[in-house]
C-alpha cells in the first residue's frame, strides 16, 4: 500500500514540498534598524479620514510621524540567512504613522507604508500594515569619510521614498545634540487592519478585521535630536499632499531593535463596512 502523500508545507504561499519556497518564514521575527523620524502637527481632520472603523482619533489627533528606516531582519528559525543571503535580510521602509484609539486604548495606525522587498510587503499585510513596493534610500555616514563624518552635531541625514519613478516623500534631520530614548514619542499599541476582498466581486470581504501587533524586547540607542523637514510630492498613486501643510514638532535619528512574535485579533469588521 502506498504511503499517503505529504501535503505541501509553508507558513505563507507559495506552499512547497519542504516549505522553503514560502515567501515569509514562521514568526517570531527579529529586527534592528537605523531610523530618521520627524514628528509633524497636521490637520486633525485629515488624520481622522484615514482611520477605518472601529479605530477612532487618538488623544493627540493632529500629531503624526514620518519615518525612513533601514532594517535588518531574520526569523527565529534561520538567523544564519544573514550570512548566506544578506540581501534577503536587509530592506528599507518609509512609514506614515497616525494616532488612534480602540475602545479607549491609545495606539497608532499605519495608513501608509512602503518597502523595497516582496517578503517585507507580505509580512506587513499579515500584520494589517498596507505596505506597497517603493524605493527607499538613506544617507550613509562613515567615520573615515573625508566629507561625511560619523553621527554628531551638524550631521545631516536624509531619507527618500520613490515609487514608479516618482519621488513620494523626503524626510531629513540635522543633528544638534544627543537625546535619551525616553525623549522619543511614545507610540503605544500598533493596530492593523487585515483586509482580503472576496474572489466573488459581489460578496462581502473574505477577511476584514482589526488586529493588535505585538513587539517584545524593544531597545533604543544612539538617539540624537535636531531640526527636521518633510516634503511630500504629487505622486500619481499616493494621497500625501493633505499633509503638506504641517509644522515640524521634533526630529530624531536613532537605532532600535525588537522582536515581533505575532499579534492578536481584537475585532471583526461587519460586512458592508469598508
Mind explaining what this structure looks like?
- This protein is globular.
- Strands 1, 2, 3, 4, 5, 6, 7, 8, 9, 10, 11, 12, 13 and 14 form a 14-stranded mixed β-sheet that branches.
- It has one domain: Beta Barrel (Acetoacetate decarboxylase-like).
- Strand 5 (105-115), helix 3 and strand 6 (131-133) form a beta-alpha-beta unit.
- It is mostly beta strands.
- The longest helix has 9 residues, at 118-126.
- The chain has helices at 44-48, 81-84, 118-126, and strands spanning 29-41, 56-57, 63-75, 90-102, 105-115, 131-133, 135-138, 156-163, 166-178, 189-196, 207-213, 216-232, 247-260, 263-268.
- The chain is built from 3 helices and 14 strands.
Features:
single chain; 274 residues; mainly beta; Acetoacetate decarboxylase-like; 14-stranded mixed beta sheet
Mean pLDDT: 95
CATH architectural category: Beta Barrel
Q: Which geometry do the CA atoms define? A: globular
Number of strand segments: 14
Under CATH at level 1, the class stands as Mainly Beta
Strand content: over 45%
Helix content: under 10%
Counting DSSP H or I runs of 4 or more residues, the number of helices is 3
Determine the CATH superfamily: Acetoacetate decarboxylase-like
Which class do the helix and strand fractions yield? mainly beta
Biggest sheet record = 14 strands, mixed
Low-confidence stretches: none
Radius of gyration equals: 20 Å
State the end-to-end CA separation.
52 Å
Amino acid at each position: 500500500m502506498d504511503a499517503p502523500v505529504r501535503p505541501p508545507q509553508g507558513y505563507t504561499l507559495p506552499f512547497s514540498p519542504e516549505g522553503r519556497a514560502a515567501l515569509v518564514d514562521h514568526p517570531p521575527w527579529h529586527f534592528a534598524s537605523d531610523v530618521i523620524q520627524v514628528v509633524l502637527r497636521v490637520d486633525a481632520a485629515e488624520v481622522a479620514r484615514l482611520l477605518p472603523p472601529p479605530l477612532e482619533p487618538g488623544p493627540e489627533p493632529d500629531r503624526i510621524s514620518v519615518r525612513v528606516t533601514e532594517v535588518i531582519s531574520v526569523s527565529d528559525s534561520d538567523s544564519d540567512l544573514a550570512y548566506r543571503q544578506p540581501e534577503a535580510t536587509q530592506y528599507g521602509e518609509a512609514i506614515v504613522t497616525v494616532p488612534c484609539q480602540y475602545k479607549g486604548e491609545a495606539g497608532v495606525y499605519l495608513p501608509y507604508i512602503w518597502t523595497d522587498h516582496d517578503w517585507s510587503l507580505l509580512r506587513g499585510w499579515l500584520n494589517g500594515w498596507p505596505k506597497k513596493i517603493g524605493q527607499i534610500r538613506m544617507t550613509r555616514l562613515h567615520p573615515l569619510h573625508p566629507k561625511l563624518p560619523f553621527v554628531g552635531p551638524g550631521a545631516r541625514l536624509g531619507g527618500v521614498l520613490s515609487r514608479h519613478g516618482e519621488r513620494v516623500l523626503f524626510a531629513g534631520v540635522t543633528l544638534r545634540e544627543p537625546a535619551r530614548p525616553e525623549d522619543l514619542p511614545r507610540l503605544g499599541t500598533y493596530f492593523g487592519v487585515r483586509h482580503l476582498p472576496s474572489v466573488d466581486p459581489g460578496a462581502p470581504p473574505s477577511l476584514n478585521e482589526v488586529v493588535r501587533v505585538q513587539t517584545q524586547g524593544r531597545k533604543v540607542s544612539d538617539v540624537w535630536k535636531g531640526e527636521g523637514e518633510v516634503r511630500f510630492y504629487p505622486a500619481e498613486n499616493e494621497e500625501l499632499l493633505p499633509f503638506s501643510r504641517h509644522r515640524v514638532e521634533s526630529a530624531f535619528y536613532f537605532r532600535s531593535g525588537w522582536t515581533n512574535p505575532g499579534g492578536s485579533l481584537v475585532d471583526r469588521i461587519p460586512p458592508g463596512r469598508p
